[in-house]
Amino acid sequence: PRSLQMLGQIALMRNQLEEARSLLRQSVAIAPQVKATHALLAQVESRLGNAELAEQQQGAMVGLSEEFQW
Question: What is the C-alpha separation between 8 and 32, in angstroms, rounded?
Answer without folding.
Answer: 15
